[in-house]
Design brief:
This is HTTM-like domain-containing protein. With 294 residues, this protein is mainly α. The protein contains 13 helices and two strands; from the N terminus they run H-E-H-H-H-H-H-E-H-H-H-H-H-H-H. Helix content is 57%, strand content 1%. It has a two-stranded antiparallel ribbon with strand order 1-2. The N terminus is likely disordered.
Length: 294
């Protein structure tokens, strides 16, 4: 009897390695690495202030307890900051992608350990950190290189799964720690009273609107695994626009923005469309000679 496996049976395994054009990686890699100066000087500029904090306040995360990471003295913080900036700018050129990419990931990981080991832990950086971890595994990629790569496919799949888990686990945390009081209580009302803007304060006067929004947010976050079903480029663009639009709306309402997570969302887009080579004009066809008369 034949033991051949049907193509559909291998589909779940192939999902992780569905080829992705290398041009997509080249563009996203540049975006991811060039974001680091923005993050260091704007998004997490407060991390540098830990250089002036007594080291006795340093309570490392689990990874900081498992690995022999240095205590963040003033010298360590400054050295990590500038080494990260220089490595990121060098990696954005696309040269030595494995070496420089690995250096960026390790330095940014240490930067995050320094940031989150003084009592504040954010959840908006895991997808971006995973992106920095998997980009070096792909190797060289050029902006107009449309060759499909399974290594690139695996890397982008890993980022997409992490994006999905960020939303799904956020919903799970809401129910785990807040129970049904989170969607049925005054969660958004409290946030708008504390951080509301002129664009969002009007919602406080609309009955049931914020409570409905809380339930809708929770349902959408629990439905996050559906993003793994996205296939076509149009669907990928629509998904990225929807997710980015959600975060822009949150920022407009309560001035909270998850920039590193938004950068990770950009990995969903088919960037190779912007860098495709112009097709060479087709050569004029030469008519075949007519047969000689008999």
């Amino acid at each position: 009897m034949s033991t051949a496996t049907s193509p559909d049976a291998a589909a779940p395994d192939r999902w992780w390695f569905r080829p992705v054009p290398l041009a997509r990686i080249a563009v996203f890699r540049a975006i991811a690495y060039l974001f680091i100066p923005v993050d260091v000087f704007l998004t997490t500029a407060w991390v540098k202030a830990h250089a002036d904090v007594p080291v006795e306040w340093y309570d490392p995360l689990l990874i900081g307890r498992l690995l022999p990471l240095p205590t963040p003295t003033a010298t360590v913080v400054v050295v990590v900051q500038w080494a990260l900036l220089l490595a990121a700018l060098a990696a954005a050129t696309g040269r030595a992608p494995r070496l420089l990419g690995t250096a960026v990931f390790l330095l940014y990981l240490e930067w995050m350990v320094i940031a989150m080991s003084f009592g504040k832990v954010d959840h908006d950086r895991i997808a971006y950190l995973v992106a920095l971890a998997v980009l070096p595994t792909i190797g060289r990629a050029r902006f107009r290189d449309r060759r499909p790569s399974e290594a690139a496919g695996w890397a982008m799949a890993a980022v997409l799964v992490t994006i999905m888990l960020t939303y799904f686990l956020a919903a799970w945390a809401k129910i785990r720690f807040g129970g049904l009081d989170w969607p049925s209580g005054a969660t958004l009302t409290r946030a708008l009273v504390r951080r509301g803007t002129e664009l969002s304060e009007w919602t406080l006067d609309v009955p049931y609107l914020l409570a409905t929004a809380q339930w809708g947010m929770l349902i959408l976050e629990f439905a996050a695994p559906l993003v793994l079903l996205v296939r076509s480029d149009r669907a990928r663009i629509a998904l990225a626009v929807f997710l980015l639009g959600f975060h822009v709306m949150v920022y407009a309402g309560v001035e909270i923005i998850f920039l590193p997570h938004c950068v990770a969302i950009l990995s969903i887009l088919p960037w190779e469309r912007l860098t495709a080579r112009r097709r060479a004009p087709a050569e004029p066809s030469v008519p075949e000679p007519s047969p000689a008369p008999a």
